[in-house]
Amino acid sequence: MAYLFALLAGIAGAVAGFFIGIGIGTVLVPILKISSFEGGAGYFVIAIGLLAGLIGLLAGTVLALRFQGGERKPGRILGKTALVLAAIGALIFAGIQIRLATLENFSGGNLTPTLEFEIRLPAGMPVPDRKAVDFEMQAGSQRSGGQFNDAWMRVEENRVVLSGFVQLYTRTSSRILVVTLPGQPKLLFQIGLAATPKVSDDYGKWQIVSFLDDMKQDSQPRKPAANQNFEIRYKVPDWTTP
């Protein structure tokens, strides 16, 4: 119970200290004649607030252990304070991870997952004009274009295989890769990945196209015919480290 009380007191002290520090910083800005150029005054106020919040955190924790926990020896107070601070740090870390997991979009840059895919055409279908092929990822309300790899095409057992990639900007499990080929219905591949995709260095199994869209008035996407065995396989390489 003493640890819980100390943890709560530390958090309360940090919050109170931060706002007190903001007030002090605001008062000091005109006294010290700190310029607001490029946000200098604002950075100063925030810095004072953070410093005061840290002092409040330590003060709240130590006072709670001293008076509520009945600790007298400085060494024991210091050790228990370290444990409480570690617990607070763990709570903050967990909160950040939960928040990141519930964001609609990924953070961007190098921390955006990339779907690498291969599209296998039916046997005997000729190599399409590269400029006439288009990839689009539909993920929730967001649309993003795909690109060919440098080695964009190969032929295996009389079947053309196209190779490309698209970034997964949106955190959703509802993803459809739309592939446009000249002279063919639009190919709609449902991508079976979790909202936060797992890392994989190897391609998964080949999967038949989910639906075909003939793009005719009043027509609906349909299941492929037996000779329309367009297939896809994909992977998501490691994107979790910069």
Largest sheet: 5 strands, antiparallel
Ends distance: 41 Å
Q: In terms of structural class, how would the helical and strand content be classed?
A: alpha+beta
Number of domains: 2
> What proportion strand?
15-25%
Radius of gyration: 29 Å
Q: List segments where confidence is low: pLDDT < 50 over at least 5 consecutive residues.
A: none
Number of strands: 10
The number of helices is 3
Instruction: Provide the CATH topology of the largest domain.
Output: Immunoglobulin-like
Which series of helices and strands comes N to C? HHHEEEEEEEEEE
Detailed description of the structure:
The chain is an alpha+beta fold and 242 residues long. It has 2 domains: 2-102, no CATH class; 109-235, Immunoglobulin-like. The protein has 3 helices and 10 strands. It has a 5-stranded antiparallel sheet, with no helix packed on it. Strands 3-2-6-7-9 form a 5-stranded antiparallel sheet, with no helix packed on it. The chain is elongated, with a radius of gyration of 29 Å. The relative contact order is 0.12. The model has no long low-confidence stretch (mean pLDDT 84).
Give descriptors for this structure:
242 residues, alpha+beta, Immunoglobulin-like, 2 domains, 5-stranded antiparallel β-sheet, 10 strands, 37% helix, elongated
List the helices and strands and how they pair.
Blueprint: H1 2-32, H2 40-68, H3 74-102, E1 114-120, E2 134-139, E3 142-145, E4 147-156, E5 159-167, E6 175-180, E7 186-191, E8 207-208, E9 211-213, E10 231-235
Antiparallel strand pairs: 1-5, 1-10, 2-3, 2-6, 4-5, 6-7, 7-9, 8-10
Helix pairs in contact: 1-2, 1-3, 2-3
